[in-house]
Amino acid sequence: MHGAEPDPRHGAACEPPGAAGARRNRDRLLAAAWDAFAGTTDAVPLDAIARAAGVGIGTLYRHFPTREALVEAVYGAELDEVVSSATALLAELEPSAALRAWMTRYAAFVKVKRGMSDTLRAGWASGGIATPATRERVTAVIATMLRGGAEAGSPRSDVDPGDATVMLLGVFLATEASAAPDRVERLLDLIVDALRPAGSRSAVER
Description:
The protein has 8 helices and no strands. With about 210 residues, it is mainly α. The longest helix has about 30 residues.
């Protein structure tokens, strides 16, 4: 019907020609970049990311004109995933187990962030990349987990979420990118154990 408002439920059908393909290419590039940054702390050539995504370098530059733009998009998308994963974990697991599982998910994010660290630092310093509210968002997730624990009796209800965030970030700052994964896991276990009420502290089952 001419002149009618488009039905938002049919947004995909109203996309301009080629929009769906462009969106798929963008998603492939983000996934390829994530895998590339996860595999090394060295600078990853952009043409290698394009090849891994199955597109040409021109397609990469159409979506992400600079390395900073690509890194910012990968960082933002994955941070969103980390934050949103907390809801599903709390729905599936008791609060202490949900918190522990979420910490493992966050640890994977930190590992990939190390592969982007030089670009991120330079972008943040120059203003070319917006400074994300990462700590605030992490603290908000932990606060949600702790509130759920207060209702269930574990983890402790008397912990400042900001203190728990400092403990968590301290683990990642104190461990190098080459640190044995089992050491990081043990340290995360200790954090969760410290957040349990006195008398109920034990190793977290995973």
